[in-house]
Write a structure and sequence with these properties.
With about 350 residues, the protein is of the alpha/beta class. The chain folds into 2 domains: about 220 residues, 3-Layer(aba) Sandwich (Rossmann fold); about 90 residues, Orthogonal Bundle (Helicase, Ruva Protein, domain 3). About 45% of the residues lie in helices and about 15% in strands. It is globular and about 65 Å long.
Length: about 350
């Protein structure tokens, strides 16, 4: 399937230019969206499969992680990848960017990184004798935050406005980020040297947390052989345009959700707040993210409606990083502990019979 749409399908907001007032761009985008017929779930599923297959060319044996990454991107959500160094966390994000022709920038988080190194800062122009804003690395479609928990809490906080509102405010001026905007942050286990626990508010901005894990024997051997011939990521070519991806994201937003299913997602989230194993349950934002992700998963699977199974499939990834266990484990065991608590909470919530449309 050809996902590189003709230029006529590009939203009018792009033609208006980045310098146009925000209200004018929004009206232009609304007019363009109404003129373009929404993609069907089957078309979105085909597009998602093409992107995932392209990513799999450079990431062997990690089909589940690839599918989750594509699903979260189409849900317009940010992803936190927690695992030990060297298992392909950064490569996963780069492969996604290369598969959709997106702009990508990488930030290596270190203890001495400053907030202005992330967002950008005013720079004095000698020629004009005026300060001009120099955009930071967050001005890209996909921002890779490598080892985000090695930065100080102050620097981590620089991402909060970016992730929640898609904008940066510096010296009283607000600058819109590119669209789509997607943060993929990698995190080392907290017991490793030089790490800082992510702020609760920072974790809550990530729609999902996933783990890569070590590859199996055959996948690791294939990776070693491929790397012997050069960097495989350089061979990837886009299989979908950003315009097509934008329409896929819009189609996921339109996916039907029965009231019983949305109440089920809320009930699962609320169940974490009553768990005796937790000191802090998941936030209302977590319920929003859970249902949004479930809509994307249903669409990626070619359905125009959400099932309770979609909510259950994503509950661990969407909720587990937002809770605080009463007796927290450390290192790799922490993720397994959180997942087990979420499963226990799920067992207490009755599963509805989903209405299909």
């Amino acid at each position: 399937m050809d996902l590189n749409l003709p230029s006529a399908a590009i939203p009018a907001a792009a033609a208006a230019g980045a310098g146009a007032p925000l209200s004018r761009r929004r009206h232009a985008a609304a007019r363009a969206d109404s003129a373009v017929e929404p993609l069907s779930p089957q078309t979105v599923a085909q597009g998602a499969q093409a992107i995932a297959a392209n990513m799999a060319r450079v990431i062997s044996g990690k089909g589940e992680a690839i599918e989750m990454m594509v699903t979260m991107f189409l849900a317009h959500g940010h992803v936190l990848i927690e695992d030990v160094p060297g298992v392909g966390k950064t490569m996963l994000a780069k492969a996604l960017a290369a598969s959709i022709g997106a702009s990508v920038k990488r930030i290596q988080f270190t203890p001495d990184l400053l907030p202005s190194d992330v967002t950008g800062a005013p720079i004095f122009n000698q020629a004009t004798r005026e300060f001009e804003f120099e955009p930071g690395p967050v001005f890209a479609n996909i921002v890779i935050g490598d080892e985000i928990n090695r930065a100080s809490p102050r620097t981590q906080s620089a991402l909060l406005e970016c992730m929640e509102e898609g904008q940066v405010t510096v010296e009283g001026s607000t600058y819109r980020l590119e669209s789509p905007f997607h943060v993929v942050a990698t995190q080392n286990p907290i017991d490793m040297e030089g790490t800082h626990a992510l702020l609760e508010a920072q974790r809550d901005r990530f729609m999902a947390r996933i783990s890569m894990g070590y590859p199996d024997d055959e996948a690791e051997h294939a990776m070693v052989r491929a790397r012997d011939l050069g960097e495989p990521i350089t061979t990837l070519r886009p299989v979908a345009s950003l315009t097509a991806v934008g329409r896929m994201i819009d189609a996921c937003r339109r996916t039907y959700v029965a009231e019983a299913v949305s109440r089920y997602a809320v009930a699962l989230t609320r169940a974490t707040r009553h768990s005796p194993a937790l000191t802090l349950g998941a936030s209302p934002r977590a319920a929003v993210h859970l249902l949004t992700a479930a809509k994307a998963l249903a669409t990626v699977q070619g359905r125009g409606y959400v099932l309770p199974d979609d909510v259950q499939t994503l509950a661990e990834s969407v909720l587990s990083h937002r809770i605080m266990p009463l007796a927290p484990a450390r290192g790799p065991e922490a993720m397994a502990q959180a997942a087990a608590i979420i499963r226990d909470c799920m067992a207490t919530v009755p599963v509805p019979v989903a209405a299909q449309r």
